[in-house]
Amino acid sequence: MQRSLFEEDVDVDIAELTAHLDKLLPQSPEEDEKASRSRPIRKPLPAHLPRVEKIIQPDTDHCPECDEPLHYIRDAVSEKLEYIPAHFVVNCYVRPQYSCPCCQKVFSGEMPAHILPKSAVEPSVIAQVIINKYGEHLPLYRQQQVFARSDVGLPVSSMADMVGAAGAALSPLAALLHRELISRPVVHADETTLKILNTKKGGKSCSGYLWAYVSGERTGPSVVCFDCRTGRSHEYPENWLQGWGGTLVVDGLNRPGNPGD
């Protein structure tokens, strides 16, 4: 990781220096052609992205050389990728209330189902917090800082409640995936290091391990499960695959026994 970050910084510095040199040192047509051949071929931008047309007309509709009217012949099209930052909106749920003069009762529509009924955020915010935390490896306190740039105050404790509620809601799905995995005859397993922030030790990070289990090929749709543990001992896959009698494929570092034994 440190090497890749270093290489990225070097590439950025080289590109910046090249841009400055291009401005200071004009090149001949032959040098321009050689430089263009050495550059990597630019891939076309994805076709599924929406296109926004921006028409740029000439400053004048007459030829600057002879003052004759210009005639349209074709369009020169250049595509440039633009990034539109994500933004927040506030959904206002208006529930008109109606009363029954006979029963003396008040009726209104029901709010949509929510895993945190009293929360002030929509499920889309909860989903984004989870993606940021587990997909982008962005801690909750860092997400709090990102959201604060949009003047949105989301306490870390509130986001922790979101993650916990989502985990509880998704636990039946995780259990189903686990049962499906151990129904397969072959499972591949491996572990990778994972830095875990320990708030009880002044915010210092400690080493953890993320165990990945993948069903064997040609045995139906792939099933992938993850199990976060504090170590890489063979006891973790043995416990997680308890009662399973299939074939476990590993790299042999810890040489776990057959969990089905």
Automatic annotation (TrEMBL):
Residues 61-103 form the Transposase IS66 zinc-finger binding domain. Residues 23-43 are annotated as: Disordered. Residues 119-253 form the Transposase IS66 central domain. Residues 2-53 form the Transposase TnpC homeodomain domain. This is Transposase. It comes from Escherichia coli O145:H28 (strain RM12581).
